[in-house]
Amino acid sequence: MAVVAVIKERRPGETRIAVTPDTAKRFAGRGVSVVVEAGAGEGASIPDAEFEAAGARIVPTAQEALSQADVLLKVRAPDAEEVSTLKSGAIVVGLLNPYQERPALEALAARGVSAFAMEFVPRITRAQVMDALSSQANLAGYRAVIEAAEFYGRALPMMMTAAGAIAPAKVFVMGAGVAGLQAIATARRLGAVVTATDVRPAAKEQVESLGAKFIAVEDEEFKAAETAAGYAKPMSAEYQAKQATLVSDHIRKQDIVITTALIPGRPAPQLVSEAQIASMKPGSVIVDLAVEQGGNVAGSRPDEVVVAGGVKVTGFANLPGRIAADASALYARNLFAFAELLLSKEGELAPDLEDEILKAALVVHGGAITHPSLQQAA
Q1: CA–CA dist 351, 142 (Å, integer)
Q2: For residue 232, is pLDDT > 80?
Q3: What's the pTM?
Q4: Residue 373 — pLDDT band, cuts 50, 70, 90?
Q5: Was domain 3-120+341-372 assigned CATH 3.40.1800.10?
Q6: CATH classification number, 138-322, choose in 3.20.20.70, 1.20.1250.20, 1.20.1260.10, 3.40.50.720
Q7: In 3D, which of 260, 264, 265 has the Cα closest to residue 290?
Q8: Which residues lie across from 107 on neighbouring strands?
Q9: pLDDT value, residue 206
Q10: What distances in angstroms separate CA 139 from CA 112, 143, 144, one per listed residue?
Q11: N or C terminus of the chain: which is more exposed, having fewer CB within 10 Å?
Q12: Contact 330/344 with Cβ under 8 angstroms?
């Protein structure tokens, strides 16, 4: 019987957990033993008693859980002390942030542990239920609007009262991926007037289907700006200048701007300059979802509110962690679906490393960092 271990996340501000009572029960149904460190679910409001009722075993320390683990499920990469307690041959699965946290991968390799990064799960139909990036980005997009509304200090919807009318807030979302689309939908539900932009022509239809207006220079170059695989093509300097002028003129009229652009393995692209911030009205708010990777907004800093000319620039490093219960529930289901690929029908550890999903997500194996993109980065 394989042992799946879960410990409390010790990174500052991390409130999520990698297993919930629901997935613990599912593991038990597969013949897998689940070991949970006492208090691991506190950040997500899950008491130990609920894990025990689901068939998990509570142990008093992280060391006791780690020493038994055949599979360690994590939200974030384990630290050096946690790695040192794992037995050789164990498997670690989590959001390992492999491009930015290479020392953690090197420690896992030195320990003889295999590791799978959920960021590298391929975007194929069979792996949709394992797509942790999408499940967490969805919640981040929602929460970004809630945070923006808090800092904005005014109502988002139009309101008609006997004392007069309140105009709706103008919200501009930059980037129409999973997080951006959810931000658009949430802002629309709250009654804001929403606009959005993206470098992919296909995003226009998605944006408009949510009731928002698409902002872009829609010339012939833009219409051909997407590859057959759905990726954006590099744009000419002339087009970039026209788009920048359009966006700058639009930003200065907005009450709230939310930026969502991320590029795997690279610093986040800057979308909002100091000059554009200075053009906005005092009391406006910018929420930078990419702050943990350098930020889309000039001057944004993780978990700080920077005030520039009366404009509040905010960037939270872990927005899903601010909705810990729901974020944990979705992430735990992603992990359970992935972990099933590591198990035999009898609940024993038996990963097929030639499986296309496991092969794509494997970052450490056999004492080395194995993922091709990480080898190139080195």
Answers
A1: 35
A2: no
A3: 0.93
A4: confident
A5: no
A6: 3.40.50.720
A7: 260
A8: none
A9: 97
A10: 35, 6, 8
A11: C
A12: no
